[in-house]
Design goal:
The complex is a heterodimer of chains A (163) and B (793).
Chain A lengths: L11 H5 L5 E8 L2 H13 L1 H28 L5 E2 L15 H7 L2 H5 L2 E2 L5 E2 L3 E9 L20 H4 L7
Antiparallel strand pairs in A: 1-5, 2-5, 3-4
Helix pairs in contact in A: 2-3
Chain B lengths: L2 H7 L3 E2 L5 H6 L11 H4 L1 H14 L3 E3 L17 H19 L4 E6 L14 H17 L4 E7 L2 H14 L4 E5 L13 H10 L4 E5 L4 H14 L4 E4 L16 H14 L3 E2 L7 H11 L14 E4 L3 E3 L6 E5 L5 H8 L3 H14 L3 E4 L8 H15 L4 E4 L3 H10 L2 E2 L1 E6 L2 H13 L3 E5 L10 H17 L7 E4 L11 H16 L2 E5 L10 H14 L4 E4 L4 H13 L7 H7 L2 H8 L10 H7 L2 H12 L4 H21 L5 H24 L9 E6 L7 H12 L3 E4 L6 H10 L4 E5 L6 H13 L5 E5 L5 H6 L4 E2 L3 H11 L2
Helix pairs in contact in B: 4-5, 4-11, 5-6, 6-7, 7-8, 9-10, 10-11, 13-14, 14-15, 15-16, 17-18, 19-20, 23-25, 23-26, 24-26, 25-26, 26-27, 27-31, 28-29
Classes of the chains: A alpha+beta (163), B alpha/beta (793).
Chain lengths: 163, 793
């Protein structure tokens, strides 16, 4: 990322990466097939569409879990942070296009960003993990560090967003 | 320059190797824009070009792979500047070398996904490519190579842009994974079909894999491609640790020799290859002869992800057609595309292989409706489509935006039709239905219809449409009026099939027009026609006897080998029948119980019973809506969850469907409490939330004008005006698209429309909604319904 002009603005990414000397930058998608299926179900069976949409969201997180495990196993470091993505806390979405281009994601896995910085296919993720030879910032992974915590609909209903 | 001319001189055409990995080796950093070097480092570029020219390449690609508007957005230079410089560097290098080497304009993918998965419109993709091609042509490129494509739709936009804005040879190549499909699911055969149809000069594969892994894909291409084949492999697979590539120039060129023996005639290298690789290829191919491939013509059509070969009877579903269908007409007038999409899904599930699409009716703009409907249908099914219209302009617009190779319905033996329709079919590489009628109508005798069929084929072949792409319709007349003509039609089918070797198509149900028990006649006639050589029955696949006839015929004619398809369709017949057999009406099941418990079929039946006793509005107001209110309240209280709420909504929807059908039968005006416009705002492609709101609103009896996702500001205003709505609902999911919501609201206000605006979406808050000028904020679908009640009643 040092070679690019991507800047992680806001406080939360900086706080998240405190004490880290390197990051792993990654992206994942479960592909266009999921979008196609969900689009079709929205016409024929909306309840199935909603459920499938949720399952697809979980699936792409699981892909990231597996990739993370695989990547981290090849690296040497003392501690690592959890995955952080654009849109978390006060880190804006408007670096998605730059991130996918930096990772050559359109060519490598067919993951692109729209002019409005939305990832396509929809069930896709860009994320980074901080690596530290000392200790990473051990702030708990939860709503307390989220800048949306006061306005979040999930929280108002007593839940959380699943990240 | 013509590719043919080059092939007259050379046995093989050799392209250069990688540019990107060469630039990286010379210090280009990840994250830098490689095409910018055309302006900043011309000597470096020329050095690389020289190294490939010295290695013996016949064609060298300019450094323009990613030189498009989207990727160059923030680089400070125009597409034209960068492409002009890129071609100039290359041509300078060629000139300095003194060799007869050609300069290729290299066109890569835009880097953004096209609709429907992405938000880039086909028309905009065309424009982006056009800009590149115009620049490349005026800079003096000798040919165009469109490569590393993964989406057939994007490839089509690029080819059209190349063909319509240059006379240069065009070579195309897509990137496949080991499953022989691209990322987007495009199979090899679809690429080759599209390229051959659109007049591309050579087609093949590059990138993503090494030559060893590409072997099975190359074999498939060599077996079916009518065009010269190009292959540009990577230097093996990338090593995940080092990012380097795994095979040597020597191994690489050995594989190339094997491919040459299989019939490939154009080679080059992709990622990781170097001048050393190209030199090795040139050396090992020297003295070898090009292998001539013998390709048998096949009849086939395709969508972006599915190829349908007409090598056995294939069902064309006829239901997407407003003729004689009141609900369909109503749907078209209300821009209710979902109604049509349902018809598409239903037919495909029933067994249709191809879908006919006709949206012609008085009072609508057929051209724009056709484009919208086609784009939406190709977003929800992979069945190839048949574009059905009598208006050439509608056909042409549809042919442009279709993702694949469609069938045009239709041309006939009249001079005017031949002159107007066939050139369109040729230009867009489609197949076409040829009706055996002319200015004197449908001739009575088989011989006369055959003569017209012969004429259509001859005229098609004269302008370069191959015979295998003309499907002849020998036109059954109704047996009630023309009983003796039935046999003539069958005879004509047989003659066309046997003597012309062409495929045949029939609109089967015409046979029974005006007679009772039409289904009986239709399926018997269908089996007679199949036995006489019918390939493409146009039928209602939802009628079990019709689809069943085709399946049974395929089994009995030994086409469905081992009865696989038949057993798959009917093997669990008994089980399925028991499940589907309507249970005797259980009087303990009430409408309310059915809605609470997601019992769609029961709810429909109860509604039918109720309709014999009560007025439709009374059922809606006293039964359906209170039941929905109850589930809505449970949802608000967190006692049930979204899927359950939607399941109940789906049940209520099936009740409405029963009511609507009843009203249509009695010619009563449809029930509606009023119209509401819904849209996911411009730039936003996440529309599932909006669609949930739509289902719920419809359940409460509102007519929803659904504008879809990524909707232009003006389109919302236009729809609100056209339908005189009292309420507009806008949805946005992401922070980056809230701005569009604000702009849309602004435009509605500027137009002084007498309507309220409700907004919703994950990142919205009541405060923000107020700030951007909305009248209401709805936290979920249920709340939107409450707001609709308040505004409209």
């Amino acid at each position: 990322m040092a070679d690019s002009d991507i800047i992680l603005t806001g406080n939360d990414a900086a706080q998240h990466l405190e004490g880290c000397g390197r990051i792993v930058l990654m992206c994942a998608t479960i592909g266009q097939g999921a979008d196609n299926l969900i689009r079709q179900l929205q016409v024929s069976d909306m309840a199935a569409a909603v459920i499938t949409d949720s399952l697809a969201s979980v699936a792409v997180e699981q892909v990231c879990d597996r990739a993370q495990e695989e990547i981290l196993s090849t690296l040497s470091y003392n501690t690592h942070t959890w995955r952080f993505s654009p849109g978390y806390g006060d880190l804006p979405l408007d670096i998605q296009k730059a991130l996918v281009l930096l990772l050559d994601a359109p060519k490598k896995i067919g993951l692109c960003a729209t002019d409005n910085q939305l990832l396509t296919p929809k069930k896709s993720i860009t994320a980074f993990i901080g690596l530290s030879d000392g200790e990473v910032n051990r702030k708990s992974r939860g709503c307390e560090c989220c800048s949306m915590k006061d306005v979040c609909n999930f929280r108002k209903n007593g839940g959380h967003c699943g990240t | 320059m013509e590719l043919k001319a080059l092939f007259d001189k050379k046995e093989f055409i050799i392209f250069d190797g990688a540019m990107g990995t060469e630039l990286q080796a010379k210090g280009l950093k990840t994250g830098e824009t490689p095409e910018l070097l055309n302006l900043t480092e011309p000597e470096l570029l020329k050095e690389i070009h020289h190294s490939y020219i010295d290695a013996g390449a016949d064609v060298v690609s300019a450094n323009t792979f990613g030189a498009n508007r989207y990727k160059l957005e923030h680089c400070g230079h125009s597409v034209n500047e960068i492409i002009t410089a890129g071609i100039k560097n290359l041509k300078d290098a060629i000139k300095e070398s003194g060799k007869a080497v050609y300069a290729a304009l290299d066109i890569g993918p835009i880097g953004q996904l096209l609709e429907p998965t992405g938000s880039l419109k086909f028309e905009d993709a065309y424009d982006i490519f056009r800009e590149e091609i115009v620049a490349g042509v005026s800079a003096g490129a000798d040919l165009i190579i469109i490569e590393t494509m993964t989406n057939l739709y994007e490839l089509k936009a690029a080819i059209l842009a190349a063909k319509e804005n240059s006379d240069l040879p065009v070579i195309c190549s897509m990137s496949y994974e080991e499953n022989r499909r691209t990322f987007t699911g495009c199979p090899v055969a679809a690429e080759l079909m599209l390229c051959a149809g659109l007049g591309v000069d050579a087609a093949g594969v590059n990138c993503s894999l090494g030559p060893k892994e590409l072997m099975p894909i190359v074999e498939e291409i060599c077996n079916i491609s009518k065009l010269p084949v190009i292959v540009m492999p990577n230097a093996g697979l990338p090593d995940p640790e080092t990012g380097g590539y795994t095979i040597t120039a020597d191994e690489f060129s050995d594989y190339i020799v094997q491919m040459a023996d299989m019939g490939v005639s154009i080679f080059g290298g992709c990622c990781g290859t170097t001048p050393e690789f190209i030199a090795a290829v040139v050396k090992k191919l020297s003295g070898k002869k090009r292998v001539q491939r013998d390709i048998k013509p096949i009849s086939a059509v395709c969508s972006g992800t599915r190829v349908c070969e007409i090598n056995q009877p294939r069902i064309i579903g006829e239901r997407i057609n407003p003729t004689g269908k009141k609900l369909f007409k109503q749907a078209l007038l209300n821009d209710d595309i979902d109604y049509i999409l349902n018809q598409a899904i239903e037919q495909v599930n029933a067994g249709a292989d191809i879908l006919d699409v006709n949206v012609g009716m008085p009072g609508i703009d057929e051209k724009s409706m056709m484009v919208r409907v086609l784009k939406r249908i190709q977003g929800i099914t992979d069945a190839p489509l048949q574009i059905d219209s009598t208006i050439p302009e509608v056909l042409e617009t549809a042919l442009r935006v279709y993702d694949g190779k469609p069938i045009v319905n239709s041309v006939n033996g009249e001079e005017e039709s031949l002159q107007k329709i066939l050139p369109l079919v040729k230009k867009y590489g489609a197949a076409v239905v040829g009706l055996t009628l002319d200015k004197d109508g449908i001739p009575p005798k088989a011989e006369q219809r055959f003569a017209i069929a012969e004429k259509i084929i001859k005229r098609a072949e004269e302008i370069g449409i191959p015979r295998e792409d003309v499907y002849l319709d020998c036109l059954p007349l109704t047996a009630s009026a023309e009983q003796v003509a039935v046999k003539e039609t069958l005879k004509a089918v047989r003659m066309v099939k046997e003597r012309l070797g062409a495929k045949t198509v029939l609109g089967v149900s015409n046979i029974s027009f005006g007679l009772p028990s039409r289904e009986l006649l239709n399926h018997i006639f269908l089996s007679m026609a199949l036995e006489n050589g019918l390939d493409l029955p146009i039928i209602n696949p939802n009628i079990a006897a019709m689809t069943g006839t085709v399946r049974a015929y395929k089994l009995l004619a030994n086409i469905d080998v081992n009865s696989t398809e038949f057993i798959a369709a009917y093997g669990s017949d008994n089980a399925a029948n028991t499940a589907n057999t309507p249970k005797p009406a259980d009087h303990s099941v009430t409408l309310e119980y059915a809605i609470d418990n997601g019992l769609k079929a029961e709810a429909g039946k109860i509604t039918e019973q109720l309709l014999s006793e009560q007025e439709p509005m009374e059922i809606i107001n006293t039964r359906l809506i209170p039941a929905l209110d109850k589930t809505g309240t449970l949802f608000e209280q967190g006692k049930i969850f979204l899927p359950q709420l939607i399941l109940s909504a789906g049940v209520a929807q099936s009740c409405f469907e029963v009511i609507r059908q009843k009203l249509a039968k009695t010619d009563t005006a449809p029930v509606s409490k009023g119209k509401i416009v819904l849209a996911t705002v411009k730039g936003d492609i996440h529309d599932i939330g909006k669609n949930i709101v739509k289902v719920l609103l419809e359940n409460y009896g509102y007519t929803v004008i659904d504008l879809g996702k990524d909707v232009e500001y003006q389109a919302v205003v236009d729809a609100a005006k056209k339908h005189k709505v009292k309420l507009v609902g806008l949805s946005a999911l992401m922070t980056t698209t809230l701005k569009s919501m604000e702009e849309t609201i602004k435009l509605i206000r500027e137009n002084n429309l007498d309507c309220k605006i409700v907004v919703g979406g994950a990142v919205l808050t009541p405060e923000y909604a107020e700030k951007i000028g909305a009248d209401f904020y709805a936290k979920d679908a249920k709340e939107t319904v409450d707001i609709a009640k308040q505004v409209i009643g």
